[in-house]
Amino acid sequence: MTELDPTLPERDPDAQMASAVGEALDADKLDQYLAQRAGQLGTAVTAYVRNESAARGTAAEAKETSEAWRSVESDLREKDEGVRTPRLRLVSQPQRYYRWAVAASLVLLALVTMITLSNLRSESEILIAEAGDSVQTVTLADGSQIVLRSHSVLYRTSDTETQSEYRLEGEATFDVVHNPERRFVVSGGSAAVSVLGTSFVLSTWGGETRVFLSEGKVELTSLGNSESVILQPGESSRVTKEGLVLAPIASDETAFRDWTTNRIVFNQELVGSVLAEFGHHYDVSLIAPDSLVNETVSGAIELSDFDTSLAFVGLLLGGKFVSDDVSERYVFTLDR
User: Which pLDDT does position 325 carry in this prediction?
Assistant: First the structure.
């Protein structure tokens, strides 16, 4: 911790802080000083910026500020006559250190904001269930049943008399008990699904949010622009990475519930989407060239043991996936 300079008045905290900043600069240890005195510096600079913002605005006012700094220096010298001149140069170069202080305060503000938001989120969310390597079934208090795919997590974010809200990471099937007086909302990725009682599948892997409706009626809403669509039984829709809501289309339910029977079924699906789903199921990353991921493919993959399933995916694409020595990442190579 930086010590107070005995040559400066103890009751002048601004002068003491200025001296400490100057010494830190001379020793090339400004970052260390800012880390140690972050709270005090942030408070001081915030007050300084508020006062200066009201007083500054013209060149003449800037000149007066410079003269004020020189006055401070003169006062300090009169009070401590005969004592060595402090090493601090802040009084003769206020703008340079003003910028350092403002930059430090902005960093502090950003860190405090992130920590505060993180704490608020963690306090408001309650972990309901977390699936590991296998499927996990959860029954809620009202009898609604949720089946979580492997490596998926479900949180409750709000629970009132008229609405229950959840957040999904991964994929799950939902069989929600009908209750016209209580809305069931689950968000995932960049979208939210709102229902009163229904059966649907929701997934968030691959950067997109997909929903398939088996029974009832649901509303799919983009969290980015509030656009929404209503789905009827047998339809699916998705919200893209850009937040666009696609029109509902008739879809095969098997392709959305296949993982519950340890399979991935796909019909004219983008290779990139298949690899993303496979990667989510085993909690790995599969890397392939853009020219390949944008092609379409049809077939089915049995989700047995990982090595066997991975070898089959590589064979399906005319090559193999090889570990690149990065944890849980596999790169596609063509067979020669």
Answer: 79
